[in-house]
Amino acid sequence: MISKDLKYFFITLVFLCIIGFSVTIYTTNQNILTYGSPIFMIFYGISGYSPALAALITIKIFSSNYSFINFIKNITNIRKSFKEYFYVLIVTLILWTIPFIVVEFHRGKSILLNEPLISLVWITPIMIFGGGLEEIGWRGYLLPKLLKKYSDFTSSLIVGSIWSLWHLPLWFVVGTPQQGTNFIPFTLTCIASSFILTYIYTETNSIWLCILFHALDNACSYVFKYDVGMHIVVSIATCTAGFFIFYFSKKYIRLKSI
């Protein structure tokens, strides 16, 4: 039985998405607004920040002020160990090296990067607001609710599937990066990241580190030549790698000192 607060979260999420996506889909297809224009970005932001807004509104209504404040502190607490930050960086780079390995195996003489790796230093902070804050809703709110009932593996699959479906309307907004790409490989890459994000959250209990991973993951799409969702074969390899990292991390890696 789904709890009252979780129902409220999903209702709020859907409501915000309907407002944001209905306007952006209609206006861009009718040439009323263009992708990136100021008015467009207002409605784009409503849908883009809907997971975070839905989580914050739900927690504010259904939890105590103390719990709400602690939730905010979890989001903004960047004082983490070097090991935790290093893990987030390394696993992201591993995921984004998979497409290069697959392409290199088939073609040879492939190029790994479009931009210097150092570019991640200034692209990642931008991507905190360009996707990273979704984690307030996905891993900050939804994942802990699911973990009370399901295993890490099942919870990762559920959140990853919902996360990918939430992106689906972007394929109908004219001008988005998603147009011209395949949704199925994208879904597989979401599930790959979902496994890793589940480990990061369960191991560190940090929403901030999940935000950082998501932002770094998005930033890599501008730096690496081959995208993790470029082809079904690549995305299957990426998803497999994501599960392997999840399994290996749970068994052999401890980010928190006991």
TrEMBL record:
**Residues spanning the membrane:** 7-27, 39-63, 84-105, 150-171, 183-200, 230-248
Per UniProt, residues of the CAAX prenyl protease 2/Lysostaphin resistance protein A-like domain are 119-219
Which keywords does this Swiss-Prot/TrEMBL entry list? Answer: Membrane, Transmembrane, Transmembrane helix
Keyword rRNA-binding belongs to the record? no
Does the keyword section mention Transmembrane? yes
Any one Gene Ontology MF annotation carried by this entry is: endopeptidase activity
- Pfam families under this entry? Rce1-like (PF02517)
> What biological processes does GO assign it?
CAAX-box protein maturation
- Name assigned to this protein: CAAX prenyl protease 2/Lysostaphin resistance protein A-like domain-containing protein
Q: Which organism is it from?
A: Romboutsia lituseburensis DSM 797
Phylogenetic lineage: Bacteria, Bacillati, Bacillota, Clostridia, Peptostreptococcales
